[in-house]
Amino acid sequence: MIVHHSASHVWTNKADIWKWHVQENGWEDIGYHYLIQADGEIVPCRPICYMGAHARGNNHDSIGVCVAGDNLSERDKWTVEQILSLQNLYRHWLFLKPNLQAVGHRDVRSTECPGVDI
Fold first, then answer.
1. What is the edge-to-edge ordering of all strands in the sheet holding 2-5?
2. How many CA atoms lie within 13 Å of 114's alpha carbon, on the beta-carbon side?
């Protein structure tokens, strides 16, 4: 599981991500499998049966999770609800895939994303 932040305001939603990935980048779909919104809602994005497009070189064997917000900005840090939902999503997938590891995007690419320790 590779965790990202949207590097945008905490109220970013699926429509925003779709616009950036599909309309602006020309991708087939949102690159992440899940988006966790500010209220903690876990929103499915790209179907899990399809390879993600979120961490070049690591998409073939990962689940992409984007948490809305920008953890490099005090104003748009993740909410408590988002952190709890991220933990719950990880536990869900850990039950299904006992060897699953959660890492930040920065652990597989040169980036500051997701901006905080996970």
1. 42-44, 34-36, 64-67, 2-5, 103-104
2. 27
- In the block, tokens 């408590």 appear at 80
pTM attached to this predicted model: 0.92
Give 80-104 pLDDT, tens digit per residue.
999 999 999 999 999 999 999 998 8
Alpha carbon distance 112, 91 (integer Å): 24
> Where are the strands (E) in the chain, listed by range?
2-5, 34-36, 42-44, 64-67, 103-104
Q: Is 46 exposed, middle or buried (0-12, 13-18, 19+ CB in 10 A)?
A: buried
Integer Cα distance of 14 and 66 in angstroms: 10
What angle is formed at CA 43 by the lines to CA 41 and CA 47, rounded to 5 degrees?
A: 155
Contact 42, 18 (CB under 8 A): no
Backbone angles phi, psi at 81, to 5 degrees: -60, -40
